[in-house]
Amino acid sequence: MKLLSLALKNLTRHRLRSLLTIMGVAAGMFLYSSVQTMQESLSGATEMNANDTTLVVYRENRFCPSTSRLPEHYLETIKRIPGVNEVLPIQIVVNNCGASLDVIAFRGVPPESLKQYNPDIKIESGSYEHFMKRSDAALIGKHLAQKRGLSAGDKFEAVGVNVYVAGIISSDAAQDENVAYVHLPFLQQASKIGLGIVTQFNVKVDSVNQLDSVAGKIDETFESDQQPTTTRPEKAFFAETAKQMIELIGFTQWLGIGAVLAVLGLVANAVLLIVRGRVKETAILQTLGYSRFAIAKIVVLEGLLLGLVGGATGVLGALGFFHFKAFTIGNEGLTLALSPSPTVLLSGISVSLTLGLLASLYPAWKATSRPLVQSLSH
Amino acid sequence: MSFISIRSVTKSFTKGKTTITPLEDLSLDVTKGEFLALMGPSGSGKTTLLNLVAGIDSPTHGELTIDSRNIAGLSRAELTRWRAKHVGYIFQLYHLVPILSAYENVELPLLLGKFSKSERKEKIMAALDLVGLTDRAHHRPSELSGGQEQRVAIARAIVHDPGLLVADEPTGDLDRESADSILALLNQLAGEHNKTIVMVTHDPKAAASAHRTLHLEKGQLIEQNLQS
Fold this sequence. Notes:
The complex is a heterodimer of chains A (378) and B (228). Chain A is α+β, with helices and mostly antiparallel strands and 378 residues long. Chain A has 14 helices and 14 strands.
């Protein structure tokens, strides 16, 4: 604690230099945390867990929603397959099938089924009754609403579809926060796809063990039909369909590594400069009885403080940025909300501290390795 | 019995291919509470002798016993621990930490020990009182005169109550008046507080204020003057 206070005071000695270093660390850790947020969000969307019991039935060999056209009457056939618990026909209309940050996705669903199929949805403003009453009503995910500046009662137009905002919704499922739920028949007509055609069926099965068998049974049932299907667990569907997005996000990890190395170099350089400017003073402290270990501890603490303050600034900045900007990447009608998480905060702070420690080890050794008599006559 | 006993001490080191011997076969005794001045031209070995006595460096040969402890064979880490308890060092250019107040500078040696905050405060204020600077406790070095800075440096050297004070030209950077007051303070520390002081100086007047002066040349003791 005593040495920490000394280290803290040392950093205030060259305020501008410390401030510039902290800003550099903050910029690097902002980038690192942004990359981590993207990676975490992607993992959440693609990695399966024991609670995932949803299958997506899509048109075979199709990826963009505009090309997946399945007859709505498949619904009754799918419902009869053993192991199937619930089925939701969905019509998806998007403004862009490629990977993009500006995606608007309408999901047309039977309004009476939405609440039952997706009980996680919470109405933040407006009401579900309004949604039920008007055929052009839409429930807008809160990220989409935030991005477009929408609130309940507004009118909203995109991809040639005009809707009335009946409510703003939130959900534990990030996907739901980036879409506009509308009535299925309304979307089928407004998008000119026509009644009786849907993009996909979301199928809930009784247990996770039945995912493969039910998927196989569905595809087998429609194998010889005019519109054959490919059925996959929801997260596998995401991973296979949104490949462009996944490659893009996969690439960003190199940016994260670059940011980490830049921070390492920056802190090491700053601490080395500090140590070089204090050769005589370090020798004085050693003369007073400070051990080499104590001197090294002061240097390492300075590195840790630079890493911690800069890192915390950068990480919190990134989390705030993603929280308030509500970024969503879309690809093939699927959306990925880039949501900050406590894991990113913890990992960012841990990485900052580790970098501060690693960056100050060599300067700490440098500060203590010189013979005392030589340092005193420096 | 001697407080400092130096027996046939030689210090040599190599610089490139040349071996330099700043001290050769030197023997010396200093009693407890004695104020000793070391004089001599540059390169005579006085700073080397001071560093050996302060435990900053180790002799190549010979015995160096301080307060009954032979420090000649101590490792670097052992010497550091020994210095922290037994030695107070006063530098020519004071070498106070500029970002710390006088109080905090004096506190530095105490941070190494297991003292509570109130114990540290008591010791610091006593040391500052002894050097007459309690009213400057919260001033930074840049707000003090040279003489006051050296007084703070002396307070820092005595705050942990070491038996030995070593001073490397403590008045070399001061005007006559400040130098005289610093020398009076050192005399007071030796006389009233029984500190053993070894001081390197080029100033004959400073040396005259010590109890005894040793003259060194080429690493050898050539003359001793005992002040009356």
